[in-house]
Structures are given as C-alpha cells and as structure tokens.
Specification:
With 174 residues, the chain is mainly beta. Helices cover 5% and strands 39% of the residues.
C-alpha cells in the first residue's frame, strides 16, 4: 500500500486532535493538539514502512498538557511544539483513516491518558488481544474500540469502501 502526505490515522473534530502519517520527507507519525494560541505537535522517529507498527498517542490534558507517542510499546516522542490553551474537542465527526491508504486495526479511544505500563499491556508484544480485558479498561476507561477485523482487506483506500460520514473505511469482520 502506498501512503500519501499527511494521511490521517485518527482525527477528532476535523483537527482538534490528530494522529497522522507524514511522508513529506520525514516518514514519521505526528500527533497534534490544537490550541487557541499554539498547536502542540509531537512526532516519532522515522518509521520503517512495510511492517506492522503499533502506535499510541496520549494527551495529559490541562492547559499545557504533555503529548506522547509510543511505537511498538516504547515511548518515542520528539517535541516539535508545546500546546497552549488546548481547544476542547467539538461535537464534530471522528475520522479513522481519512485520506489514508493502508491497513488499520484496533483503533481505540480511552477516557484517561494511558500510562507507559498501560501502553505496554495494550501492545502485548505485537499480539492482538481483547482491549476490554486490559487493566486500563477497568472503570469504563475504554470509550470506543473499533476492532476492524484481522482480514487483509481491512483498509481504507478512498474508493471501494463503506461510507462513514463522507470518509472511507472497509471492515471485513467475518
């Protein structure tokens, strides 16, 4: 699969919180949190394409909360800009895989910032498992989990897909 510049992996409110793949020379995942005066941005180190990669983006919250990115269970955060006065997530759509070509599996939203231990447990050494049975999920902390199946056709490609609010997602659960 080819990946174009700034493929959105996960996007709240059309930009309030965004995890995306930036191939514009960097080959990194980037996570932004929009602020009224400064948008915070963190990025990973360069990612090898063509291999499965587990990505977790966290935001501490608060007026200048820390953003973190984890790659395959390990903290991998390069600070590009600190958020100032973050915007609240508006009641706009949530996008998974908008304008992206590739395979996405197990997209999840949590009520709390995941700790390093929570991320390690969710990563599970790269083996897929039930996120509802993780320690972090206790107390209804797992808000939404889109399993998206484990079929090779679970992908977004912008052409052959189900329509989700004008965006594309294929889910071959079966």
């Amino acid at each position: 699969a080819t990946i174009s510049d700034n493929d959105r992996i996960f996007d709240f409110s059309n930009s309030d919180r965004r995890l995306y793949w930036d191939t514009g020379g960097s080959g990194r995942f980037e996570f932004t949190v929009a602020g009224s005066s400064t948008t915070g941005k963190v990025s990973t180190s360069t990612i090898t394409t063509g291999v499965w990669t587990h990505i977790v983006a966290t935001f501490e919250g608060g007026n200048t909360g820390a953003q973190k990115l984890y790659v395959n269970g390990t903290l991998d955060t390069n600070l590009d800009a600190t958020v100032s006065a973050p915007l609240e997530i508006s009641d706009y759509d949530c996008f998974i895989g908008a304008r992206a070509t590739g395979h996405i599996c197990d997209a999840a939203v949590w009520r709390k910032e995941l700790s390093a231990a929570d991320v390690t447990e969710a990563y599970n050494n790269g083996a897929r498992h039930n996120l509802e049975q993780t320690t972090a999920a206790a107390g209804r902390n797992l808000i939404s989990w889109w399993k998206l199946g484990d079929d090779v056709d679970d992908a977004t490609d912008g052409s052959t897909s189900y329509s989700l609010g004008g965006n594309s997602m294929i889910d071959q659960m079966g």
